Amino acid sequence: MATASKTTSASSKSTSRTRSSAKKAQPAIAEFDKDEELHAYREMLLIRRFEEKAGQLYGMGLIGGFCHLYIGQEAVVVGMQMAKKDGDQMITGYRDHGHMLAMDLDPKGVMAELTGRRGGLSKGKGGSMHMFSKEKHFYGGHGIVGAQVSLGTGLGFANKYRENGNVAMAFFGDGASNQGQVYESFNMAELWKLPVVYVIENNKYGMGTSVARASATTDLSQRGASFGIPGKQVDGMDVRAVKAASAEALEWCREGKGPFILEMITYRYRGHSMSDPAKYRSKDEVQKMRTEHDPIEQVRARLMDKGWASEDDLKAIDKDVRARVAEAAEFAQTDPEPDVSELYTDILL
Ligand SMILES: Cc1ncc(C[n+]2csc(CCOP(=O)(O)OP(=O)(O)O)c2C)c(N)n1
Ligand SMILES: [Mg+2]
């Protein structure tokens, strides 16, 4: 007990220093080189095109249950993917297709899971919100808001226990950030110095409620302050800013200093789920984000400005990406449904 409180107070001194300097210092954006820009462009475009196709298949009645699209938020997972090391884990909520693609999961397996087919990542039995791949270090896919925060803390505990040098990245939303289990997790993670980056994807809404209407304090990066966890607000629409902040947070965790909070300021263009008429915000608000802050358009403009890619080069990338997505969609419609006997497998009794 005495040791624990000593460690905690020592850490809170050092972390509060880091926290204030992290908040004040707005470092110049770390520029990307040509390869990084092209990589970010391709990866974000894959997520965008995949999600557009998923939306179409949903509209055609081919996807049952819920389907939450990630369009607009692509820079968050791609920037983090560019900073992480092999072995680092990701865990998230139900808005999870982009995270899976960023973790290098086959688009065919993701799309076939959405349509409930045999070749889906959960054998067609999990659907949009429940997919996993231990091999690729992706731990779901969770429909219970906030559940992934405590589970992600457990991943961090396992990393520390096994001394494997890996970091768990637990993603959750602005809405989830008001949940009790989030703070129980923060406390334990800081007390035991667990390697967890908590990534709050603040897309401004939890279903139809804006963050300002639901949260007593809206600087979510400071939600770990009472535990001594450093936090940083990041422009989540700029993949370069995301990568730089992620690298810093991951390094902090890898050095054994405990958890780190990144609040990604982002925006979802589509409704909460496919069944959301989105009457709680104006079309102008969405349009302004799309035209002024779109994460993919930002990279595209830089590539063109710097002469690193021509219109034709970018069209060729888009064609390639569309072909991969079309192949996934074709597979998701032709692969057979699971055998009836699968009803009795993968069940906890
Ligand atoms: C424990 C629990 N409470 C409520 C819900 C219903 N619900 C699903 S999503 C959601 C909003 C969460 O918003 P946020 O955390 O901001 O994530 P976003 O959907 O914006 O990505 C709610 C309340 C749920 N699935 N689980
Ligand atoms: Mg939200």
The total beta strand count reads 7
Order of secondary-structure elements: HHHEHHHEHEEEHEHEHHH
CATH architecture classification: 3-Layer(aba) Sandwich
Structural classification: alpha/beta
CATH class: Alpha Beta
Subunit structure: Heterodimer of an alpha and a beta chain.
Region (Disordered): 1-28
InterPro entries: DH_E1, PDH_E1_Alpha_Subunit, Pyrv_DH_E1_asu_subgrp-y, THDP-binding
Keywords: Oxidoreductase, Pyruvate, Thiamine pyrophosphate
Structure commentary:
With 349 residues, this protein is of the alpha/beta class. The chain has a single domain (30-90, 142-330), classed as Thiamin diphosphate (ThDP)-binding fold, Pyr/PP domains (Rossmann fold, 3-Layer(aba) Sandwich), CATH 3.40.50. The chain is built from 12 helices and 7 strands. A 5-stranded parallel sheet has the order 1-2-3-7-6, sandwiched between helices. The longest helix is centred in the N-terminal third of the chain and has 26 residues, at 34-59. The protein starts with a helix and ends in a 15-residue tail after the last helix. The model is unreliable at 1-24 (pLDDT under 50). The structure holds thiamine diphosphate (TPP) and magnesium ion (MG). Magnesium ion binds next to strand 4.
